[in-house]
Amino acid sequence: MSLMADPEIVDLYVLRRFVTAPAAFVQMVVTLYESAPPRRMQTPGGRLMSSEMTNCGALGWVSDHAGYRYVTQDPLTGSAWPEMPEAFRDLAGRAALAAGFGIFEPDACLINCYRGPAQMGAHRDADERDFSQPIVSVSLGAPAYFLWYGAQRRGSPAKLWLESGDVVVWGRSARKGYHAVQRPQGEVRYNLTLRKAG
DNA sequence: GAGTTTCG
DNA sequence: GCGG
Q: What are the tens digits of pLDDT across the range A162-181?
């Protein structure tokens, strides 16, 4: 267990049960799905990711054969991504403050839906312009293990059990840390990843 | 470069 | 298509 020995782990915070009404957030996600349907994106290598994604906010993260990037319009509908609900921005701002990252004003919210065996392999959030801004990750629905690898994609990760309403915030030395998500321990798990992308 | 069924 |  290198959890305490890893210097960047101090820049990763777990705010347990930070969301007071997770069910209301799930309902907002379902409403957003009406204008920006969840879809499985393709990796640059041509494989389908197992989680279903969509976005809200001025910028939305997409992946396809051409690579990873943020775009202002949903490739599926041709329209702008739906506006980010105030409750999302407010929650992210309060979480970043609580974790000691100061004022945080996200312009992008990636919404992931993990159903059944869906998972997310080890990666890092590295498509944003300003790495001084933290990442705020909100867990909703079924619990799942979150794996934190840190600076190196190899080795044994720290394993965090995340439940509905838990919020993870990372930045500074941990900003570009590798992480992964295991399959949900239940039917469906949603995750909001709030970022200052532009 | 966010992929690969829980494998027995 | 490369590179990240």
A: 999 999 999 999 999 999 99
